[in-house]
């Protein structure tokens, strides 16, 4: 119960901040009323204050350039080799831990589902963690910081949440939380410490910066997919499709390694649990059973049919409804269901409705099938049927969704009658839509697959001459593809999860058709969620018709600049000014005997300035106290990623008059562009190099503006050409 | 015969230029004695002169920036959509054509192999086209221009060559040429014209620039892999692993589409050819047969064994020997076997030795197996055996290598005796090494797989309790992985080609072990070939210990700059100067009333200047002839990719005194870096943005140097830290 109470608080906090524009207000609110409630004893509310100012990704490496170069130079060839080895070790650990988590979830769900089956009761229907986590991980990999997305606490809550939700019979899947868990494990292991547990293992200190951390989080997400579907290659592709802007071969191999280890660990422990130690050919957590290959799997005249299935309006409808429903839910959660208890009530309501509807459906359906020797059910339900028969509607509703999918794929033709399938599709579809918007650990994969498999099988039955199981597979792919829109990785995931490459081509065709048709009407579900949260998410390319926009029109101007040797008072004032919460500041040098504007000589980040202020690295003090320890890279690393806020740093009136020399700490070679650079070119620089700030200079190298992610994410290709979005101001 | 003669000339030309440092000398030589010999009637010798000056990749888009922007502005939203649709259409065409080529090759090889089987004679043992083509395509995708690598003639020669080589019994495979064919098809289709055939279809003119062309070539290479192995996902990954530095989702999908269409076309036509129209579950050209899944495919205690197989010295030996042999061959070809007829003799010799050795082996082996009802051979050979038996050594030697691999994978335990396998492995290994270096259309995949399968099966037999077919698969993966080192794509290709995902994990493990062990000793085969040709190939990351190098130390300096308005005579002199064959020239603007050095205002390419000179875009002429047609983007596109050499452009003495205004044609916003930028940062810019020239400026925006690919490719991490390679000067 403790974790449930805790989680409700957590969800509450999360929702309160979903609307980023309310940020300042809510921070002050949270600080006052949430601190006493924090069960784990850590003031995490305080800390996420700083998350808004740590968007440093690429630059952190360069910001203390001289320090960094110094370290690199001291490092021998051997040193680099050790680093490389630690990267592999970390990826191995990520794989093992993610595999173990998957194993734990699987065993717990099995146990609880077993319980449920025996007593037909709903034991754990309370909400535990909010959302699937995939949109958040997508944003993180894209380079957007979301507060607390990779914390240990999030992991615990996710794992418990998904176990209870899945076993509790809600229309949810476990893959979203698995991916999120993998990411959290990666973020934790790679840093060699846990700020939540207040333990620092003094390991992997080199990796305490955003670029490295993001790479490991990619590996974690891949390991999560791999464990969820037994699809290591699919996992790698998922990470790449969502995260990578710069394809790096070594990184890809490490990600691949983590995926592989994760599947291996899961299979190893599951094989022991199932009493068949050593049998590693067991696929992942979500296993659709193997499609045994016939001599002729499909004919070419079936392909247009498959593509038609991919294209049908169902898919569009699916997304549209999903969106409407979850928009409704999000707004309801944020605006009205602020109270945790109301959220619990909502989840209970959904669970109750789910149960009621299911029982009603089962009662009124007369689809009783004989319990033959060839049936694939582990737990056939006799409910309202004669002896020696089982209720196929009950099979679809009361198994774990995964098992229902498997039975839809593989049961003999005739196991389901069309009416059952039609009713089931409709009912489950609405339940799934409602559930997805709930504040529950939920994946959308499995419910979509189940809905798709149901109507696919229905199509197959109506076509008479076809194998309904095959059509169930195609329907599942179409439904899922229409909703999540990840063509390449999804194909591989489906192929790996069904254990048969023969169906690769039709699955691809279906997914592509679903994507093309879907994109025509509506964005994918995850993109819609990302848009709802209005984060500066950069897409793959600049909008097509944006060639006429130049850096001059896009940039923010004027820019707050610092001098190379700047007064402490000025710095503190700028950092404390809440109306200009920039994170990067160009450093300029004034030509002494002229009125000319200052020339750019570097770029410094808010977080760096804060560390400098905290350690009082002032010119005057350095002179007076020669023995003072020089600021080292370690000081920046220890502060990462939760830099203190400017308010917590006390600067006396005397100190305000001191000077700070930024030369040694700034990035002396920031990326710059001339003001006439076109938007696609600027965009490409951001995307390819993972930039967060780009200084715009004139031909005399004078600063005239600064482009940030937000400036780019504003532009969007709408129905009527280029549109400018109104992004939330943070 | 005509094509054979032609090909010998082709190969000859190719080899003559392999040594890039001899380039200038050989160009003059070739021009004098090869022109009369050119059978197809086109002076292609002349044209590859210019290939050295067209390394424009990214910049071409921006070089005539104002022209380009003008076009983009004129283009509506609909226009962009049409472009997008044409990209998909082109990818579809690429897929279809590659599939057809694969189909043609397959049918021809089958037919010829059938002939050979019936009459046991070697019909087509002459060399037809040189090398596998994979190293060349790797270089092309990396951004290095190799003369004539994507010409129509290359395609014809490759296709005929591979048919004759494979059917002729040489120890070669057909996948390298397939990949190359795909790339050529892509380059041809996407440009909407063929300069070889002198036809311009006036289509796809927008795509006549290097960035677009390279994207389509990636799609072609993927389609080639896909057709060769029936592995569409593997194809996409191959393209990405070799080519992509900037992962773009839309591009990936188009590549995927091309791969898919290619497999589909191949299967569609093959199914018709084989009299089973509509059966599309047929995998690609190279098909290892389906591994039917047992309940327990492998045990975890077998994994270390598999990894051991991946690691064994064989792999290292393989590469080392391969390298030695092919180095020997390359040098022999270049230095001594200059005469085409000698190359023919060498190939004939190899063919003769292959045949002799095979017969000797078959004669002395007594491995006669009973011809049971369950045997998988289509053409069992009775040679020297009693009736009702077949000679298993002959099976291994005289089938197409692909069919031999299949029989090693799938034949019943006991089909081969260990002595046969051991002898076969050794013999075939040396034959394959020798053949690979020949001037013949050759792939290294299939021979490696065959060798690996043979010793893998041998291991399996020696282990007694194991399934030899499984070990044959693992051995094949280990051998191939040790030689070509493409972990991710290779895993997927193997999984797709064997049609069973269960073996995914062991294959991965084996490939990774093989890669790690192999990398410790030696680079992969393709990398060795690339190194032998000393092209400026950029790896994924800058060498680890290069942080202390800055742009100032790396750049070429001083740089030839042009003024914004420059005298024609100066331009002609600079372009004609063979000692400074730069391709990019910074454009500077002089401050009128000062002695200060000039400031950077743009970058212009050699090819652009040549087009300008050719069209006589001089300031004076523009004034006198107001009616003169304005130079358009089309003029640049028509000249692409074979820009005329400066020598062919006649500039009179009067015209030399004219001025040329470069403002409208230069790239006004070239990428620049300050001189203190570290090497890894410069490297990342090049790799991520596909740059070819980067201007180094001081803090006054004055040009102080230029970094090119060659400057970066020089640095290399050797055994003793950073080493500077001596790259051939072009």
From TrEMBL, chains A, B:
<feature type="domain" description="CBS">
    <location>
        <begin position="666"/>
        <end position="724"/>
    </location>
</feature>
<protein>
    <recommendedName>
        <fullName>Chloride channel protein</fullName>
    </recommendedName>
</protein>
<feature type="transmembrane region" description="Helical">
    <location>
        <begin position="445"/>
        <end position="465"/>
    </location>
</feature>
<feature type="transmembrane region" description="Helical">
    <location>
        <begin position="251"/>
        <end position="273"/>
    </location>
</feature>
<dbReference type="GO" id="GO:0005765">
    <property type="term" value="C:lysosomal membrane"/>
</dbReference>
<keyword id="KW-0813">Transport</keyword>
<feature type="transmembrane region" description="Helical">
    <location>
        <begin position="303"/>
        <end position="323"/>
    </location>
</feature>
<keyword id="KW-0472">Membrane</keyword>
<feature type="transmembrane region" description="Helical">
    <location>
        <begin position="419"/>
        <end position="439"/>
    </location>
</feature>
<feature type="transmembrane region" description="Helical">
    <location>
        <begin position="216"/>
        <end position="239"/>
    </location>
</feature>
<comment type="similarity">
    <text>Belongs to the chloride channel (TC 2.A.49) family.</text>
</comment>
<keyword id="KW-0406">Ion transport</keyword>
<feature type="transmembrane region" description="Helical">
    <location>
        <begin position="35"/>
        <end position="53"/>
    </location>
</feature>
<dbReference type="InterPro" id="IPR014743">
    <property type="entry name" value="Cl-channel_core"/>
</dbReference>
<feature type="transmembrane region" description="Helical">
    <location>
        <begin position="344"/>
        <end position="364"/>
    </location>
</feature>
<keyword id="KW-0677">Repeat</keyword>
<dbReference type="Pfam" id="PF00654">
    <property type="entry name" value="Voltage_CLC"/>
</dbReference>
<dbReference type="InterPro" id="IPR000644">
    <property type="entry name" value="CBS_dom"/>
</dbReference>
<feature type="transmembrane region" description="Helical">
    <location>
        <begin position="501"/>
        <end position="521"/>
    </location>
</feature>
<dbReference type="Pfam" id="PF00571">
    <property type="entry name" value="CBS"/>
</dbReference>
<dbReference type="InterPro" id="IPR051280">
    <property type="entry name" value="Cl-channel/antiporter"/>
</dbReference>
<dbReference type="InterPro" id="IPR046342">
    <property type="entry name" value="CBS_dom_sf"/>
</dbReference>
<keyword id="KW-0129">CBS domain</keyword>
<dbReference type="InterPro" id="IPR001807">
    <property type="entry name" value="ClC"/>
</dbReference>
<feature type="transmembrane region" description="Helical">
    <location>
        <begin position="472"/>
        <end position="495"/>
    </location>
</feature>
<keyword id="KW-0868">Chloride</keyword>
<dbReference type="GO" id="GO:0005254">
    <property type="term" value="F:chloride channel activity"/>
</dbReference>
<keyword id="KW-1133">Transmembrane helix</keyword>
<feature type="transmembrane region" description="Helical">
    <location>
        <begin position="155"/>
        <end position="173"/>
    </location>
</feature>
<feature type="transmembrane region" description="Helical">
    <location>
        <begin position="85"/>
        <end position="109"/>
    </location>
</feature>
<keyword id="KW-0812">Transmembrane</keyword>
